[in-house]
Amino acid sequence: MSVSSSVRRLTAVAGVAAAVVGVVALPASAADHHHGHHYRPVVYISDVQYDSPGRDDHSNRSLNAEWVELTNDSRRAVNLDGWTLADEDGHTYTFDHYRLNGRATVRVHTGIGRDSRTDLYQDRRAYVWDNHSDTATLLNYRDRFVDEVSWGHHRDHRGDDRHRGGDHREGHRH
């Protein structure tokens, strides 16, 4: 399946879901499309380093060289408390008491470290992001889809691309 037909399929599914939910979905839809002129969510996955540079020796340094970046494209801070970042295997990081400032980026590292305004740590002792193929999915505190970035060969053959964001940038690095 091509990326465009996959996106169309997702859009069709979202349209049906909105019709089923009806009036209740209207305020959420209005908030989700608050910028109108572009389709990227306010907070989105801006970059992924899924293949830690060098040998995968499972050291904390190597684990922390594996990360996902989130960017807040708006002027206002966004409370990410309860939001989740997950891979295809269900490894999930939940943001706890964290506000992402306006026009700011936070890097979520896999390993152990001291959280700061610009760097958060999952405190794991094993890699999360698959080097060959995976999907990083961001959900808000209501478990609603916000953004995702995929790389490699997927079971549904989507290929490398960002889904839902509408952004031309891709989430993988070589």
Fold blueprint:
Elements: H1 3-21, H2 25-32, E1 43-49, H3 60-64, E2 67-72, E3 78-79, E4 84-86, E5 92-94, E6 99-100, E7 105-109, E8 119-121, E9 134-139, E10 145-151, E11 161-163
Instruction: State the CATH architecture of the largest domain.
Output: Sandwich
What is the CATH class name of the largest domain?
Answer: Mainly Beta
Beta-strand segment tally:
11
Based on CA inertia axes, which overall geometry fits?
Answer: globular
**Spans of 5+ residues with little confidence (pLDDT < 50)?**
1-37, 162-174
Enter the CATH topology name of the largest domain.
Answer: Immunoglobulin-like
What is the number of helical segments per DSSP (H or I, 4+ residues)?
A: 3
Overall pLDDT score: 78
Give the amount of beta strand, in percent.
Answer: 25-35%
* Rounded Rg: 16 Å
Strand order of the largest sheet: 5-4-9-10-11
Task: Describe this entry's structure for a reader.
With 174 residues, the chain is of the alpha+beta class. The chain folds into two domains: 1-32, no CATH class; 39-163, Lamin Tail domain (Immunoglobulin-like, Sandwich), CATH 2.60.40.1260. The chain contains three helices and eleven strands; from the N terminus they run H-H-E-H-E-E-E-E-E-E-E-E-E-E. It has helices at 3-21, 25-32, 60-64, and strands at residues 43-49, 67-72, 78-79, 84-86, 92-94, 99-100, 105-109, 119-121, 134-139, 145-151, 161-163. The strands form three sheets. It has a five-stranded antiparallel β-sheet, with no helix packed on it. A four-stranded mixed β-sheet has the order 1-2-7-8, with no helix packed on it. Strands 3-6 form a two-stranded antiparallel sheet. The radius of gyration is 16 Å and the shape is globular. 26% of the residues are buried. The model is unreliable at 1-37 and 162-174 (pLDDT under 50).
